[in-house]
Amino acid sequence: MRKDRVVITLINLGLVYRNLGQLDRARGYLTKALALRPEQCETTGGVIALSELGLIEHDSANSDQGLQFLGRGVEYKSAHWLSPGRSRQLGNIGVVYRDLGDIPRSLDYLNRSFSMHKTLGDRRGGSKPIG
Fold this sequence. Notes:
The protein has 131 residues and is an all-alpha fold. It has helices spanning 3-19, 23-36, 44-59, 63-77, 84-99, 103-120, 123-127. It is globular and about 40 Å long.
């Protein structure tokens, strides 16, 4: 099996286990996916893995670590400044700050996310719940 397919399968397993609430298992699969292709973290799959790891850490009361993962995803997406992936990352960061009670910072990220969705003409992404 090609390495990129293994990475995608690991990410999908991580997503399923996160949805099942099995955060440790999800974290393990997503970490393995990133370890297999560290040079390609800026790809969509890598950014999804970073985003999911960020949300898992946040869900596990490790918001600082979660923000680090989410921030790495935003950095990688900066090469494609106006992308749905980047706008979702910004929205997820806004949700973490909202949950931490930092409403001004939350609004900043959520407004940037919304503006980017509008610029892209992404109606679904601009109205989709984040987090």
